Amino acid sequence: MVDLLEKENPGCFDDPSKTFADLYMKSGQYITEIVKRLYNSKGLKQAYPNSEERIRHIFKHQVYGLAPTECIYRIALRYILGFDEDIHISEADHHLRQADSLPAAKDGTMEEFLDKVF
């Protein structure tokens, strides 16, 4: 899916202002692949040459995710944020949350729901 996203939107991972979301995370693999593409992109490396600043920018400004249950949320967080024991990214510095977006998707209130969650 990430390859298709890049194919349909060339250069999308080089723009530090682009945002990406998984509104129904399970393992966290999709967001993790997005983070890898952003982190390794020429555009973000140019904008944020320092690797720690780059990863912090990505989590604070570019990736968003919702997990429907507490258990799935914990699994996804461990998978997504467990990349480095020296860099701790606090909840205030990322937009990964435990919230079930399915009811909002069904009743057409997703925009309001996301405004409340984030």
How many DSSP E strands? Answer: 3
What is the topology, as strand order, of the major beta sheet? 1-2-3
Low-confidence stretches: none
Biggest beta sheet attributes: 3 strands, parallel
Please bin the fraction of helical residues. Answer: 40-55%
Decide which structural class fits the backbone: mainly alpha
Amino- and carboxy-terminal Cα gap: 24 Å
Radius of gyration from the alpha-carbon trace, in angstroms = 14 Å
Order of helices and strands: HEHHHEHEHH
The shape, in one word, is globular
Q: Strand share of the residues?
A: 5-15%
Number of helices: 7
Our count of domains comes out at 1
Mean pLDDT figure: 94
Protein model, in words:
- With 118 residues, the chain is mainly α.
- It has one domain.
- The protein contains seven helices and three strands.
- It has helices at residues 2-8, 29-40, 42-47, 51-62, 70-81, 102-107, 110-117, and strands at residues 20-22, 63-67, 95-98.
- It has a three-stranded parallel β-sheet.
- Helix 5 (70-81) links the parallel strand 2 and strand 3.
- The radius of gyration is 14 Å and the shape is globular.
- The two termini are 24 Å apart.
- The mean pLDDT is 94.
